[in-house]
Design brief:
elongated, 12 helices, mainly alpha, 84% helix, disordered C terminus
């Protein structure tokens, strides 16, 4: 297997970050989604009465922790879904694909550029929520929330969920012909994996560090497999020419 050239990967990442600064929709998504998932959990937990039964406290904390994981699951899909089809619409995809960059380097660079903002936003929101609850929530909430398993889960799950979401969004973007449809499908397709983490959030499985590590291991396997699948999907000719060119090529072949 040929070694990945990280210089070319970094060049793709830098190009993507420049594109983000020019794209108002991506900037809007990066700002509003984390803000929503910051306000809702705080409003829910900080207003929880002290008389709430422990089962209710655990359910509320589980909901908050699940919401914290929605950010890395949804935000990268929105960004990644734009990554290929957006460039195709702007006419910037062909010059990039005609460079010496390999498809796995191309895919990896775009994935890193989608994952990093999501990880940063997710960790920032989690830190604000946890510190706010530590100061302003009831002792019962603090006791349920302040467990090593939750912190290990957040640290491990965020990058792994963001990576999965990026692969899904990128794959759909490579096959789609409409930016909005691509983003909607990418977001919806990334959500089912949250069912795995929700088992711990809602304490269907007892939340422990060991459980968090096991779930993280499953996510690693899924992410690695998804990278291989998505890399194989990237055919330079198809991405450059698109569906219309394929149809034209087919009609020409049929006349011979």
């Amino acid at each position: 297997m040929t070694k990945v050239n990280m210089t070319r990967v970094r060049a793709v990442v830098r190009k993507e970050f420049r594109e983000y600064r020019r794209n108002k929709f991506i900037l809007y998504s990066m700002a509003t989604l984390p803000l929503i998932f910051l306000i809702v959990p705080l409003a829910t937990i900080l207003n929880l009465p002290t008389s709430t039964p422990i089962a209710g406290v655990k359910g509320a904390v589980g909901s908050v922790l699940l919401l914290m994981l929605v950010i890395p699951d949804v935000l990268p899909a929105t960004i990644a879904a734009y990554s290929v089809i957006g460039e195709r619409d702007q006419g910037t995809l062909e010059p990039l694909l005609t460079t010496p960059i390999r498809r796995d380097e191309f895919v990896l660079g775009k994935a890193i550029a989608s994952v990093l903002p999501a990880i940063a936003m997710s960790y920032l929101v989690f830190a604000v929520v946890v510190l706010s609850l530590r100061v302003g929530a009831t002792p019962e909430v603090v006791h349920v929330m302040w467990q090593p398993a939750w912190f290990v889960a957040e640290i491990l799950f965020v990058p792994l969920l963001a990576t999965w979401s990026t692969w899904v969004g990128t794959a759909i973007s490579a096959r789609s012909s409409d930016v909005r449809i691509s983003q909607q499908l990418g977001t919806l397709a990334s959500l089912p994996v949250l069912a795995l983490t929700s088992l711990m959030s809602f304490q269907v499985i007892k939340p422990t560090v060991a459980v968090a590590l096991i779930i993280a291991g499953f996510l690693v396997v899924i992410d690695v497999g998804a990278w291989r699948v998505v890399s194989r999907m990237f055919d330079r000719e198809r991405l450059i020419t698109g569906k219309k060119a394929q149809v034209a090529g087919s009609s020409q072949a049929s006349t011979h």
